[in-house]
Amino acid sequence: AQKITQTQPGMFVQEKEAVTLDCTYDTSDPSYGLFWYKQPSSGEMIFLIYQGSYDQQNATEGRYSLNFQKARKSANLVISASQLGDSAMYFCAMREGIRSGSARQLTFGSGTQLTVLP
Amino acid sequence: DVKVTQSSRYLVKRTGEKVFLECVQDMDHENMFWYRQDPGLGLRLIYFSYDVKMKEKGDIPEGYSVSREKKERFSLILESASTNQTSMYLCASRPTKQMDRGRSDTQYFGPGTRLTVL
User: Fold this and answer.
1) How far apart are the C-alpha atoms of B46 and B63, rounded to whole Å?
2) pLDDT one-digit tens code per residue, B42-76
3) Which residue of chain A comes nearest to B3, CA vs CA?
4) Contact call for A42 and B110, based on CB within 8 A
5) Nearest residue on chain A to B113, alpha-carbon basis
6) Are A47 and A37 contacting, i.e. CB atoms less than 8 angstroms apart?
7) A75 Cβ partners below 8 Å, 6+ apart?
8) B-chain residues within 8 Å CB-CB of A98?
9) Quick check: A100 pLDDT over 70?
10) Which of B79-90 are b and which e, b meaning 16 or more Cβ less than 10 Å from the residue's Cβ?
11) Tally of helices (H runs) and strands (E runs) in chain A
């Protein structure tokens, strides 16, 4: 079974509007972390936002916020006031056993290509 | 700022060649990772290392090996390159303990190497 599912291969949004990128996950580990990365056409992976499974509040970082619904196992990324520079591939990822400190890897979703229209 | 560098941005090799992809990080991170990225599949872990000379297989280790002789350097080796290894290869590093909890467990990525095997 897929551990991270991103069901939107591509999304379009008008500049200055908000957009939500979906991510659902599957784990039986009570201790996990969820990440969103942005990958522009240049290829580098840019960390955007992190949510721990025990965090009481939804994470926010500037124009990025994470809509964390633990019971539904979803961790959607919300980008407010979209900018042309937000056009990129966005990946959701999860690491299980977040408190163990071990070198467990991130598991990535297949990504969503976001295009911001002028 | 953390810096992860990869030896080449673009590489073209022939089937059967031995290929070395080098990754260097300058932040004394214990953990280093090699991923490959393919359209529609996201990033998949090939190998990771949590210390010098230590390595563990990821999800798709077949056809690859790794070497970590020094803490800052993690090499990915394709013993006999094949066309199905044409892909984008991304290296990442992470310290065992993150000082900033808000970025707990963030992996820092290099710019990627786009490998084409003819």
Assistant:
1) 10
2) 899 999 998 999 999 999 999 999 999 999 999 99
3) A44
4) no
5) A43
6) yes
7) A23, A24, A25, A34, A36, A51, A66, A67, A68, A69, A92
8) 104-105
9) no
10) eebeeebbbbbb
11) 0, 12
